Amino acid sequence: MADVLVHVLDHDGQFNKSSLGALSEGARLAGELGGEAHAAVIGGQAPCAALGRYGAARVYRAGGPAGVAQPVVDAMAGLMREGRFACALFGGGLLGHEAGAALAARLGAGIAVEVTATGVRAGRLVAERPVLGDSQISEIELSGPAGIIVARIGAFEALDRGAGDAPVEDLAFEPSAPATRVRMIEHGAQRGGEEADIEAAEVVVAGGRGLGGPEAFALCEELARAFGPAAAVGATRAVVDAGWYPYAAQVGQTGKTVAPKLYIAAGISGQIQHKVGMQGSESILAINTDARAPIFEFTDLGIVGDLHRILPRLAAALRARGDGR
Amino acid sequence: MRIAVLVKEIPDATVRKRLDPRSGRLERSGERTLNPHDAHAIEAAVRLRETPSAAVEEIVAVTMGPASASRALHRAVSLGADRSVHLCDDAFAGSDLIATAQALAAALERIEPDLVLAGQQSDDGECYALGAAVGEYLHWPALTQVVALELRDGRVRCARQAEYGYDTVELELPALVGVGDALNEPRYPSLKAIMGARNRPLETLTAADLGIALDQVGAAGSRARWVGVKQPARRPQATMIEDRDAEETVARIIAWLDERRVI
């Protein structure tokens, strides 16, 4: 039992970037354990054999509705019970947390979530997990029949090793009682429509609850325009869920991951779920009325003040400079 | 129908949270309060009770924690729960995710709810995963981070944001639903509700009451064990500007953008 089973999520024929990162980390960890990394793709349509490039020595493919945890748990529990796997690894996100937790409960296995590093110490799996607003990292040792590790979004880089295709095995499994009582009605609705290419933007002006209402997004849009065509507007999950801005613009877990030259966080408190989507930005400017907001812990320039006063003046100052050139 | 709401007592937001350097557990000193995310789960239960077609007869708040956690239950009752159940036993201390989920599931089997609601995360543990594990122990369907829910014909229809957009998922009852904060805006309790909360029934259960062997809970029943702590690499401390004069603040921002060659 030295192999690692990695759940790989896909959508519209594309593999999830965090899942591919988890697969690369799984291959590295399997090397440390003296085994192989195998991938499990459930309900997907993407070309599974290509996962060989990211370190999968074998791919298990199973049918089932996409977007819910139950088929993932059923399929992976069957494989885990064969006793070959020391560890099941998930790329994080909503589905990773749900499927990982349920799998741990079904197997009686130890679980660590939001993991940023893995390793083997004295023959046991150890996962590093940031705690208390990322002010410390706890080292968690996992025991039981296997260890379940749910990575933090974007914690592991997807490494294309250029290896050849992996053999793909179709997997049949019996759905468990809970799985038969879950029905996907609609999957992947794009609320708010409107494609916003925030991933390619050099400047992202993002707004959160501190904007006070949907109309204040006009301030973010005005500032983005003042930066020029390479700027885009982003949003937090809280305001997207509240219907203030389209889902396509959401930064963070279950949204997009961005790493622009400049990230402006306007009225954003800085929850971990948001941080994971933007912490790779080169320069971060945050404006918030609350000096204790967590966002200031990972900011380069922090303004304690009212964004409604600052954003329009900043846009005007940028426009004035542009005109002067 | 009966609704159970899982709640947790956590350190107050004003308390500086620390890990005990020997055990890695969160230190329990200082002011404590109801996990704010759980208030959304209670509010969801209350709104279902206010919907006549849902026919909600009872809302039960459930927690596992030390003796002090009864205050979180009082708070939950003041927010609308009818009674509460407290899993309180020294044997529970140090339980990891699966040991906690197993104990809560055992209590829920006694309470026999049709629907279990939970908050989206605990403010101290930041796990997001307990609900799914509890659902698994109950052999029930579970769905978390739900931002809209509707009961009809023995099913609960839920909407949530997942990795690729918004999903609508239907679960057959009994089921567990973890609610996202965006589902509702919790009301403030009336003074009368706060005063009356202490007089509502509160049942305390031990591991023995639940028929749980002592090696299944607490540190003994846990498969995830804290073994050490590291300091993370941190971004250098931010330059902070207290905005007094917006024009001056903007001039400083422009100078900083220039220095960083962003413009």
Describe the structure.
The complex is a heterodimer of chains A (325) and B (263). Chain A has a seven-stranded parallel sheet. A five-stranded parallel sheet of chain A has the order 15-14-16-17-18. In chain A, strands 8-9-10 form a three-stranded antiparallel sheet. By secondary structure, chain A is α/β, with parallel strands linked by helices. In chain A, helix 2 (69-80) packs across helix 3. Chain A has helices at residues 17-33, 69-80, 93-107, 177-180, 217-227, 237-241, 272-275, 307-324, and strands spanning 3-7, 10-11, 14-15, 37-42, 56-62, 85-90, 110-115, 117-121, 124-131, 136-142, 147-151, 168-170, 182-189, 203-207, 231-235, 262-266, 283-288, 301-304. Chain A folds into two domains: 3-180, HUPs (Rossmann fold), CATH 3.40.50; 203-324, Rossmann fold. By secondary structure, chain B is α/β, with parallel strands linked by helices. Chain B has one domain (2-216): HUPs (Rossmann fold), CATH 3.40.50.620. Chain B is 26% helix and 28% strand. Chain B contains six helices and 13 strands. Chain B has helices at 36-49, 70-78, 97-111, 130-138, 191-197, 246-259, and strands at 2-6, 9-11, 32-34, 58-64, 83-87, 115-118, 142-152, 155-162, 165-172, 175-179, 202-205, 224-230, 239-242. The longest helix of chain B has 15 residues, at 97-111. The model of chain B has no long low-confidence stretch (mean pLDDT 94). Classes of the chains: A alpha/beta (325), B alpha/beta (263). Chains A and B meet through helix 2, helix 3, strand 7, strand 9 and strand 10 of A and helix 3, helix 4, strand 7, strand 8 and strand 9 of B. Strand 18 of chain A pairs parallel with strand 13 (239-242) of chain B.
